[in-house]
Amino acid sequence: MKIRPLPIALTAVISAALLTGGWFMYRNEADLKPLDRIATGAPGVVNAKPVIGRDAVTVNLTLSGDANLRHIYDTIATKGDAIIGSKTLKLNIEPSGSSAKLDDVWSSMLFKVAQAMDHREYAAIPAAMTQAQADHPGIQAGSEMDDANVYITLKDGQSVKYVVLPREANTIGAWPNA
Questions:
Q1: How many CB atoms lie within 10 A of CB 86?
Q2: Model-level pTM?
Q3: Which CATH architecture group holds 5-93?
Q4: What sections of the protein cross the membrane (predicted)?
Q5: Is 165 exposed, middle or buried (0-12, 13-18, 19+ CB in 10 A)?
């Protein structure tokens, strides 16, 4: 019996393509699309794009001006629990409605917020929000917290800046999404 290398190579390539394509199709239909529907179904979410990694599920969000970050996180975490499993859920807010003024306000209060986060003195964050409103007339600053994150919202008319800070202190001392 003579072994022919060309049919063996073609069979291997076709099998690998079918298996890989099937896996991508399954992942897209069974994981990404339902998670996308869950995220876009939350009030205040304009657009969502989930990315499932090995240890974390990151949802890239575009939000409207009246979004409630804590509610959005809770909705995605509870309704998407079967997809997320034991992975960490991270929200990445696309900067669509922020302004230079809000960035300056956030920069001015960042030291107080960072110190409160590092020392786990979360009660100091609402005080920093109140101080920011007093120092910058016309700015509305709010904060909420759950067991995973601290959510900060800064508003100035139509401009809105959303910041999600994980309650675990980062080792580099900065937040990548701020």
A1: 5
A2: 0.79
A3: 2-Layer Sandwich (3.30)
A4: 6-26
A5: buried
